[in-house]
UniProtKB/TrEMBL annotation:
Signal peptide: none annotated. NCBIfam families: PRK09585.1-3 (NF007139), PRK09585.3-2 (NF007148). It holds the Pfam family AnmK. Pathway: Amino-sugar metabolism; 1,6-anhydro-N-acetylmuramate degradation; Cell wall biogenesis; peptidoglycan recycling. Keywords: ATP-binding, Carbohydrate metabolism, Kinase, Nucleotide-binding, Transferase. This is Anhydro-N-acetylmuramic acid kinase. Belongs to the anhydro-N-acetylmuramic acid kinase family. GO terms for molecular function: kinase activity. The keyword Aminoacyl-tRNA synthetase does not apply. It comes from Thiobacter aerophilum. Catalyzes the specific phosphorylation of 1,6-anhydro-N-acetylmuramic acid (anhMurNAc) with the simultaneous cleavage of the 1,6-anhydro ring, generating MurNAc-6-P. Is required for the utilization of anhMurNAc either imported from the medium or derived from its own cell wall murein, and thus plays a role in cell wall recycling. It catalyses: 1,6-anhydro-N-acetyl-beta-muramate + ATP + H2O = N-acetyl-D-muramate 6-phosphate + ADP + H(+).
Length: 369
């Protein structure tokens, strides 16, 4: 890479929630990267529907996937342009865009994970170098290809004396264990928001339960909760990762009875997310002293309160990463900017202790400007 390349990188994350793209512009000249700008650009309903449909087998998938990837690249381009306008920066001042793409299948047990994206089109449209396809190299090295954010959590949120756990509550929830001394581990622990979102959409017409207030109006159903928690994924030892392939409405419906009130099911789903997180910390992150939440689920007040209540038994405080200098909703996008910055420097981005890969790898492919 040319000497003097400015440490300004754009991160684009469109995650399993399928709510749109989160875009941040990070300045990596500081240990805690500075977020110079951020944009959240929601998908139009038609694109969201198509991406959701592409999560399952269907007719003419190859062409539909290719066309959806092109539309995603145009959507990402708009987010990048808004970010440049917001910060007053030119494309040639940006070292790279780290573009995760849209996961539509995640089947590490079959040896693949698939993120729709068109990095060539994104580079062409923006005039900025693009780093993309972050997960496949880790899979090639025998890993799960996910989660990848633990390395970023370790670089930015570790503390010399405090044993911290970072919890990302996106569509799926994942945890990073940061004991002092650096023995970093992490894994996906189960659903974050995606089941709550789907149930809320079906019964209220709203894409998500703002503040968790609908869930708070219901009462958790103990038997349903026990049935859901009986899924072997929760008991499986790490490394592990998951997605919509496993946790989806059909998975929920298999356990439902017509007698359940919708708000009680929502309350149960909120409890499921909280309990999966709490159990994962108890089983695998003994001695955790602080729990730090990020991802959109950190804005679900009822969920945060439920987690606070669960961790109160061990006197473990629960707070949002906002207080550590990175706002909860921008952590993931900033992580992909950081991963792109690592790739540009030929530095590995995965953590074998997390993904199960046989060795650290330089992640992704670079599409020149
Ligand atoms: N005010 C709020 N109240 C309740 N939930 C919220 C709020 N704001 C965001 N969310 C939740 O956060 C979700 C988006 O989170 P986020 O952007 O972190 O997910 P993602 O990046 O798509 O997922 P993943 O991390 O699995 O890739 C929304 O779908 C919604 O469920
Ligand atoms: C395959 C895939 O896209 N997985 C996502 C998803 O969303 C959360 C969780 O499941 C995590 O494994 C991952 O995302 C984050 C950004 C990661 O790789 O760390």
């Amino acid at each position: 890479m040319a000497a003097g390349t400015p440490p300004l990188v754009i991160g684009l994350m469109s995650g399993t929630s399928l709510d749109g793209v989160d875009a941040v512009l990070g300045d990596f000249s500081h240990t805690i990267p500075k977020t110079l700008g951020h944009v959240q650009l929601g998908f139009d309903p038609e694109l969201r529907e198509e991406l959701l449909a592409l999560n399952e087998p269907g007719p003419n998938e190859l062409e539909r996937a290719a066309l959806a990837a092109n539309r995603l690249a145009e959507h990402y381009t708009q987010a990048v342009k808004e970010l440049l306008a917001q910060t007053g920066l030119r494309p040639d001042q940006i070292a790279a865009i780290g573009a995760h793409g849209q996961t539509v299948r995640h089947r590490p047990e079959l040896g693949y994970t698939l993120q729709l994206n068109n990095p060539a089109l994104l580079a062409e449209r923006t005039g900025i170098r693009v780093v993309a396809d972050f997960r496949s190299r880790d899979l090639a090295a025998g890993g799960q290809g996910a989660p990848l954010v633990p390395a970023f959590h370790a670089a930015v949120f570790s503390h010399a004396e405090k044993h911290r756990v970072i919890v990302n509550i996106g569509g799926i929830a994942n945890l990073t264990d940061l004991p002092p001394g650096g023995n970093v581990t992490g894994f996906d622990c189960g659903p974050g928001n995606l089941l709550m979102d789907a149930w809320c959409q079906r019964h209220t017409g709203q894409p998500y339960d703002v503040g968790g207030s609908w869930a708070a109006s219901g009462t958790p159903l103990p038997q349903l909760l026990a049935g859901l928690l009986d899924d072997p994924f929760f008991r499986a030892p790490p490394p592990k990762s998951t997605g919509r392939d496993h946790f989806n409405l059909a998975w929920l419906e298999a356990q439902l009875s017509a007698a359940f009130a919708p708000q009680d099911v929502q309350a149960t789903l909120l409890r499921l997310t909280a309990q999966a997180i709490h159990d994962a910390v108890q089983r695998h992150m003994a001695g955790a002293e602080e729990i730090w939440l990020c991802g959109g689920g950190a804005r679900n007040t009822a969920l945060v309160n439920t987690l606070r209540h669960a961790f109160a038994a061990s006197a473990t405080p629960v707070a949002l990463t906002d207080a550590l200098g990175v706002a909860a909703e921008w952590v993931e996008a900033l992580a992909f900017a950081w991963l792109a910055w690592r790739t540009l420097h030929g530095a590995p981005g995965n953590l074998p202790a997390v993904t199960g890969a046989t060795h650290p790898c330089v992640l992704g492919a670079i599409y020149p400007r």
